[in-house]
Description:
The structure holds two protein chains of two kinds.
Chain A: E1 5-7, E2 10-13, E3 19-24, E4 31-38, E5 42-50, E6 53-57, E7 64-68, E8 74-78, E9 87-94, E10 103-104, E11 108-112
Parallel strand pairs in A: 2-11
Antiparallel strand pairs in A: 1-3, 3-8, 4-5, 4-9, 5-6, 7-8, 9-10, 9-11
Chain B: E1 9-13, E2 18-23, E3 32-38, E4 45-50, E5 55-56, E6 61-64, E7 70-75, E8 84-91, H1 94-97, E9 107-112
Parallel strand pairs in B: 1-9
Antiparallel strand pairs in B: 2-7, 3-4, 3-8, 5-6, 6-7, 8-9
Amino acid sequence: DSGVTQTPKHLITATGQRVTLRCSPRSGDLSVYWYQQSLDQGLQFLIHYYNGEERAKGNILERFSAQQFPDLHSELNLSSLELGDSALYFCASSEGQGRNTQYFGPGTRLTVL
Amino acid sequence: DAKTTQPPSMDCAEGRAANLPCNHSTISGNEYVYWYRQIHSQGPQYIIHGLKNNETNEMASLIITEDRKSSTLILPHATLRDTAVYYCIVRGPPWVTGNQFYFGTGTSLTVIP
């Protein structure tokens, strides 16, 4: 158990819909990272937040957005969903911003029908 | 980040040591070597990391060659629960490459009874 929690575990929805994925970092960790893992792309970095502020963006679509709240939990919002958005979404947290080790949550499996 | 090369798959007999190689011939002096594993769609699990010295923890040992161009992750007594995809990641300073990890395709290790 990494100490990072993600909800829900599974999400099934239809094309065009919007969903919110939630992540609670390990106690004391200020950084939250979101990654997407699809069958044909492997693990891809999406976005990084540190203490409430966006720090880096990776391959995140404009239809996706995220935020980190004052209590440090984070939400990833996916809108206008397409079939290709079906994937595992992982959240990771680390103590700071630098080369701190990242600890990953169990993931949310999103299926878009 | 320096590129890494890992064999796509390996087998190991249960109870024997599993030695997973990683080539990172373009690694620079301030880049760390990290190892993570992912057990069947679970969140990636941190194993170990190092810069130039060999490292050991309760999970594994990391042997980095003197020229740092390659490394080996050693699981001393592999069990069936060690069957997973193992990722070797070279990570540079965050002000150069950001704080995220770049996951490749890894090595799929199968521990055989």
